[in-house]
Amino acid sequence: MPVARTDPARLVAFEVLRAVSDQDAYANLELSRLLRERGVSGRDAALATELVGGTLRLQGSYDDILDRLVKGTLQPPVRDALRLGTHQLLSMRVPTHAAVTTTVDLVKEQIGHKPSGLVNAVLRKVAAQDLESWLTDRPRPARTAHPAWVIDALAEALDRPAELDALLAADNERPAVVLVARPGLADVAELGGSALAASPYAVELEGGDPGAVPAVREGRAGVQDAGSQLVALVLARAALEGDDQRWLDVCAGPGGKAALLAAIAAERGAGVLANERQRHRAQLVAQGVRAARAGVLGVVTGDGTRPPWSPGTFDRVLVDAPCSGLGALRRRPESRWRRTAADVEELVPLQVALLDAALDAARPGGVVLYATCSPVVAETAGVVRTVLERRTDAVVEPALDLIGDLEDAESAHLPGALQLWPHRHRTDAMFLSLLRRR
């Protein structure tokens, strides 16, 4: 049997790309699984992570280059290998010889000898120019590695033409690792890193494996974007008269926001009921809130649009609705190639139903926070307006006073609501609208 010459990092990266292409796998989950199963760690794990994330983020630009160099149709595995090699040549400090040789070896071992000559020739042509030269005068979708419909949707949501290219560039940057120190369980000082404006519990790591941080291993802290932390904080900071003991997270999976809410609730003598429709995600929620169990009323598996709880039960309600995910393209880069405009149209009725049910779950005087990790107008301001147009017992509550020192964060499409942006706030593009049940 021939000895494999492909290094572990590149092999893992290629297999993740194939799983994303063939099986619609989530890159982050597939990458974590393979790194763990293969025992890949340290610098090799960091390399595999950059190869996967960088290749997927810039896939549209790389395909534009490859399609100009290759006549005919590329087999999907060969295209994935070429994307991987192109990323090393144009966006990493990998010498040309190393990038070409390792990719050719990978093709020989994983695909076969026949396409290896083509791969060698194409990558040597790719190496003849830098990325900027390849993309000069190309259409914006190729130049920015975003599908045209995504660019249009983001441009409408941003409503500032002068900032659009900065936003698209921010989507293509490797995101920093951000940790949350869950209050009452961990302190930001023990996590290291630097503070972020969006959340007093957030720190940005300069590098390294977050799993090596003791508080993360013990569940007292976690990996969570600062924008996602702000979702929990805005709900918890909203003024409330009367009872404040029963909180609800309608769409709790995979559990990060529920864990932060539970930690905050525990300090106030309150508790969170975490609901998740999918059983396997509900199990993830249960694991995530274990350290903050003093603030947990329970974890249930149920449909948030047809809930098992009685109307008017809760004082604070979070509905972090399923969405297109176009606000988290730095972290879930495959979303831009997987989602379509039709997906948004299909999601909106579900989002409307979830917000309606969340308002029903809140008691009179209680608050509901509607959030999405998408800035798309139809999924954000459009959903809130649709719900408010047909009911008279709810109103948007201005939330600008609840976000601390964060500036320039009001939604361009719904006064009082919040819209975060990666190029402005160094967070995912989270949308937040606080509503009060009359």
From TrEMBL:
InterPro entries: MeTrfase_RsmB-F_NOP2_cat (IPR049560), MeTrfase_RsmB-F_NOP2_dom (IPR001678), NusB-like_sf (IPR035926), NusB_RsmB_TIM44 (IPR006027), RCMT (IPR023267), RsmB/NOL1/NOP2-like_CS (IPR018314), SAM-dependent_MTases_sf (IPR029063). The keyword Methyltransferase applies. Pfam families: Methyltr_RsmB-F, NusB. GO terms for biological process: regulation of DNA-templated transcription; RNA methylation. S-adenosyl-L-methionine binds at C251, A252, G253, P254, G255, G256, K257, E276, D303, D320. The active site is at C373. Residues 150-438 form the SAM-dependent MTase RsmB/NOP-type domain. Keywords: Methyltransferase, RNA-binding, S-adenosyl-L-methionine, Transferase. GO terms for molecular function: RNA binding; RNA methyltransferase activity. The keyword Transferase applies. Belongs to the class I-like SAM-binding methyltransferase superfamily. RsmB/NOP family. This is rRNA cytosine-C5-methyltransferase. It comes from Nocardioides marmoriginsengisoli.
